[in-house]
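Structure (tokenized):
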């Protein structure tokens, strides 16, 4: 009886190993398959220093999102076009969305750069994976990206209050504003 139990345990151990190995292989395989994205999203452009600066925008995201299991960045190849900004209609340099949990509450970020302006950064993008809760910080008139002076494009926002709520998920704007006074 003990021998049969030991044989059963050995069989179960080998089955468990096979199942775990299969799951590991599937996870590695799934993380290497790019996820296609083709979305047109309504957004709002606001400025923190000018409460009257509120403009509707349409952002089109097309391309492939690549999760990366082994390093701290995900990759996006494709295009992010903002209808009112013609420079975004050129080919975009791929994004390597780096995660910094300490500063941006787990959001990923990178610079938006287009081949027509390869030496000029168009904007910074802060996003959750697959472009959920996305904020784009545009270069301001002085070629500086600053939360206080740069225009901000917040995807899926239809009011200034909703846009500020999404922005607060990344950086506590109220604390930031009070600290800069």
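Design, position by position:
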């Amino acid at each position: 009886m003990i021998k049969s139990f030991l044989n059963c345990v050995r069989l179960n151990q080998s089955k468990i190993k096979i199942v775990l190995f299969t799951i590991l292989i599937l996870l590695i395989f799934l993380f290497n398959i790019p996820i296609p994205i083709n979305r047109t999203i309504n957004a709002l452009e606001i400025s923190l220093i000018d409460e009257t600066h509120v403009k509707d925008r349409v952002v089109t995201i097309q391309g492939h999102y690549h999760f990366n299991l082994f390093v701290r960045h995900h990759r996006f190849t494709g295009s992010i076009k903002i209808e009112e900004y013609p420079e975004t209609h050129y080919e975009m340099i791929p994004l390597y969305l780096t995660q910094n949990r300490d500063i941006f509450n787990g959001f990923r970020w990178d610079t938006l750069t287009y081949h027509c302006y390869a030496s000029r950064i168009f904007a910074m993008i802060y996003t959750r994976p697959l472009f959920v809760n996305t904020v784009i910080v545009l270069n301001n008139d002085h070629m500086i990206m600053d939360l206080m002076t740069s225009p901000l494009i917040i995807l899926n926002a239809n009011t200034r209050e909703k846009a500020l709520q999404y922005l607060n998920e990344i950086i506590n704007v109220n604390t930031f504003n009070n600290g800069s006074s």
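Reviewer-requested clarification: Strands lie at 35-46, 54-66, 73-82, 95-99, 108-112, 123-128, 132-138, 152-155. Residues 174-181 have pLDDT under 50 and may be disordered.
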